[in-house]
Amino acid sequence: MSETRAPGFSNVETTVLGADEIILNMGPQHPSTHGVLRVKLKLDGEKVVASECIIGYLHRGVEKIAEHRTYQQFAPYVDRMDYVAAVSNGLGYCEAVEKLMGVEAPLRARVIRTILTELQRIASHLLWLGTHALDIGALTPVFYCFREREEILKIFEKYCGARLTTHAFRIGGLQYEAYDGMEQDVRRFCDDFATKIDEYEQLLTENRIWVGRTKGVGILTAEDAIAIGATGPVIRASGVKWDIRKAMPYAAYDQYQFEIPTGKNGDTYDRYLVRMEEMRQSRLICLQAIENIPSGPIMARIGKVLKPPPGEVYHSIEAPKGELGYYIVSDGTVQPYRVRIRPPSFINLQAFDRMVRGHLVADVVAIIGTLDIVLGEVDR
Amino acid sequence: MANDPEEKQPPVPPAAEKPAAKTPSATPPAQAAGETPVKPAAPASPPAAAGPPKPAAPPKEAPPKPEPLDNELVKRYRARFGEAIREATLDRKQAILVVAREHLVEIAQYSSDDEQFNFLTDLTAVDWPKREKRFDVVLNLYSFPKNERLRLKVHAAEGEPVPSVAGVWASADWLEREAFDMFGIGFEGHPGLKRILLPDEWQGHPLRKDYDILTQDTAWVRENLGIESGQ
Fold first, then answer.
1. What whole-number distance in Å separates Cα of residue A156 and Cα of residue A161?
2. pTM for this one?
């Protein structure tokens, strides 16, 4: 190189800025990692060559705790996994234990569960949309998203007293009846929300910067998505039309009409569109359910002491992040012998390495956001 | 609360013993001969363990319990792998196949390619310290074309490596790392088996039934804080 250098610069040391690959640590305290995810990036210039996720900073041993609690005592713990969708966690756990015992919650309880879980899905997606857009540089949506999310949290608060870690359901049904005016509250929210989603879309869907930052970023093909075990909006955006609410209906989903939105390209933009449409569909489910809440008991006949007969069960639900499964082994005592939680965030995060290769560091932020992970659930 | 594996009885074997005895009549004679060596290999529950669960069952009205399974799917598996399919049960309407550890990868490949169970939903383990082979490695499979689930199980003793299925389903990568982290089960042929949730220098495997958090905590406190006990 020295011979091509301009005269007078021959003594300048040029080896300071080498062209080697460097390792960059993002996190565990990076604001865009949504918690305590640490990503080790191998960079060639600004391009990601390889990556490694280092997780476990939030590991609390939830599965071990379960072995030392009774079935009912463990229920509040599941809320602390995906803490932005506690209602969905609770639904999965309660239904899994019910299946293990061979009981079913009464229809009224299942319908109320469905309404609350769909509201929770909207709340979870709103939080995702706000923070994801914020990460990419769109400052406005987060305020609107939190405004609407607040309305949902108010409904939860009125229903069970808690906003975040709700513990809304009980094994066998519900502890609380729907409060007076719940139907009106849900209907009012749903009526308002239709135009609100359109507003978000006006801000983003055709926004040149948004499209530029998300289209073609973090592509996951359908084959890869299946191989890596991705579920939820991530696999649907890759074109796999699969939703457990349709494939293996639980709660009261078999009674309602709704569509499963899918994407084509499996990129960040498609995942955005899929989640937006999912919010619309959740709204429709809520409206259908609130129209006709059957009367009747809200609790199945189960004893105060739960002793499921020996055996095992795997039950999964479509949580906002993907397939949330519970594999519970009973030995006939009051405590579960083993509770395994299949966390959608943990397994979806496995796709991160495939999605991020070849992209710029700035896109890493978009890809973490689009996976919609919650570290409480990744680490458990 | 104290860890007390002593009180817990393994639930599956007592109920599963019966199916194992019945199945030979349903299977071709060629395999019936093979059944005899299979039974001891299956996690032989201590005779004492067969006692307690029984009195608990009768008082209730038809509680769900594992039953032997012999449908078309199981027949195809048996025809293909013979005695490598140790047991087939149906528990809460969910099909479970207990398969031989050394044939796991072939069976996994067959499940994925021929039986269309192309999606590994979950892989985990259960610890039964009183059994001869203490670990159950549990694979929950799902088939997109058939909309059906299947559970494969493998028994492994302490220190016995389980063949990795990461070559069949890529999703097994982190799941096997987690099972290794939590149970100390080695997965043979895994691309990079190391701890995933716990720090690399962690001692022990927390989801084992005999893992005691107090002992570990005291050891840490002694070493790092120089006092006798943190409790």
1. 7
2. 0.80
User: Which tens digits make up the pLDDT trace of A214-258?
Assistant: 988 889 999 889 999 899 999 999 989 899 998 889 888 988 989
Could you tell me the pLDDT band of residue A13, with boundaries at 50, 70 and 90? Answer: low
Q: In terms of domains, do A187 and A330 share one?
A: yes
A99 CB near a chain B CB, below 8 Å?
yes
Quick one: pLDDT at residue B210? 85
Q: How far is CA A270 from CA A156, A216, A282, A349, A367, in A?
A: 30, 9, 18, 17, 12
Sheet holding A311-319, edge to edge: A311-319, A322-330, A338-342
Residues A75 and A20 in one domain: no
Say if CB A289 and CB A114 are below 8 A apart: yes
Which candidate from A314, A331, A333 shows the least CB-CB separation from B94?
Answer: A314
Subunit contact B175:A380, Cβ cutoff 8 A: no
Q: B147 to chain A: which residues are within 8 Å by CB?
A: 247-248
Task: Say if A351 falls within a structural domain.
Answer: yes
| Containing structural domain, residue B130 | 5-47+62-171
Question: Which range of residues forms the domain containing residue A116?
Answer: 62-379
Indicate the range of A264-273, B39-48, B121-130 predicted with least confidence: B39-48
Peptide bond into A28 cis (omega under 30): yes
Cα A279 from Cα A269, distance rounded (Å): 16
pLDDT confidence of B220, banded at 50, 70, 90?
confident
**Is any Cβ of chain B less than 8 angstroms from the Cβ of A311?**
yes
User: What is the tally of structural domains in chain A?
Assistant: 2
Task: Give, in order, the Cα–Cα distances in Å from B157 to each of A43, B15, B59, B124, B208.
Answer: 43, 21, 35, 15, 13
What is the pLDDT at residue B10? 44
* B109 within 8 A of B139, measured Cβ to Cβ: no
Instruction: Quickly state the pLDDT bin for B62 (edges 50, 70, 90).
Output: low
Distance (Å) from the alpha carbon of B132 to chain A's nearest alpha carbon = 18
Q: ipTM above 0.85?
A: no
Best B169, B171, B195 residue to mutate vs chain A (most A CBs within 10 Å): B171
| Residue A259: pLDDT over 80 | yes
Residue B45 has pLDDT above 50, yes or no: no
